Amino acid sequence: MGSSPSRPNFQRRPQQEVRLHMEHLQRISDIKAKPLLKDGGILELSMTHHDMIFRMKETNILDNFVPLKQDLLPYKNLPFRVVLNSNMGKVDVKILERADGKVGIDLKGMRGMSCIPEEICYNNEMQQCSWLDLSRNQLDSLENVQLLIHLQEVFIGRVIEHGKIYGNRFTKIPTQLYQLPFLRILDMSGNKLNEIPPSIVNLRHIECLSVARNGLKTLPKELEQLGNLRTLCLDGNDLTELPDFLSRCHSIRKLSVRNNKIVKLPEDLPLMEGMEILNIHGNDLTSLPESMGEFMSLVILIASHNKLRGLPISMEALSTLEVLGMENNLFKFVPVCVPKMSNLKMMSFSFNEIVEIQDDIGQMLALDRLWLEGNKIDKFPEALPLAIEIDDLRIATTRSLDCRTV
Question: pTM of this prediction?
């Protein structure tokens, strides 16, 4: 297998059915993540090519916090538009170059398109493209997509625009994708998958996989054979548990299982030794495993909108943790393990049942954002703002207590 393909060199073709013309797109020079969603939704895996892999959404935890900014790559220009006269009629195909230099095919939003026009798959120049966006269509077939041999990223997920949902309708992962030797990113969110087949093992080089919002109830054991998988998004499915074998997926760095029905996490989950971001928002968890403190690389933990009343004492050993999201649970106090998290920079215990903040919170020297809205706090240590430099302290209470923003 050779190295990744170089940029294609598009040239004017003599055929009458293909018309090329230049179209300029103003360069987008500044991209920022939006402030976070009030419902506590953070770190949604957004698999469109606009956002690439990860996007921070507005939340009451991470206002303007933009991790992995190198992944947010805007388009640099729009060099070509191809109008094909195919058996589907005229198809307006945009050939875009991103700021990272990767050239791809934009076919999103082709109303009524149920398959890829064969004129695209057999076009020599298009066969050199590295990404393909088929979002917001009505596809149920990817016939001939394997001819686009240099594809590294394929997006065939659902898109929500102006309150309307536009999605494809795949019930299985198209087998043609297994024949793409460079495929690293696959988004199949919002389709109609009811299972991930064992044949997923054929995606040998996959690094980022999103199967969010599909109705999945189980996961195949073959996932542990995907040795290059770094990001796995399972948001919005019907999972009630995470299988034990997931702890053997040592390559995974970012795992999101938001808005499922999970009631318990595997005790061996921390064996995913490279895990940096874990998002378990919006499940039915009443506790976390005692082994949670064994995560060696965890930087962000989001467990908002569950039914947690406490945290394992072992979590005091999470020396790499920087962000802790625990809003909308059932906490009556900040767990004793939290002040001992030496590197914690941001934490939210908003919208719990907390009535008192203990003095040792003032010993958290790295903390610069503490969010406690929606509690019933009637005792707050006066030393707290003096003990640490807090850029953003928000305490909205239901009692007659002065609220302050430092």
Answer: 0.78
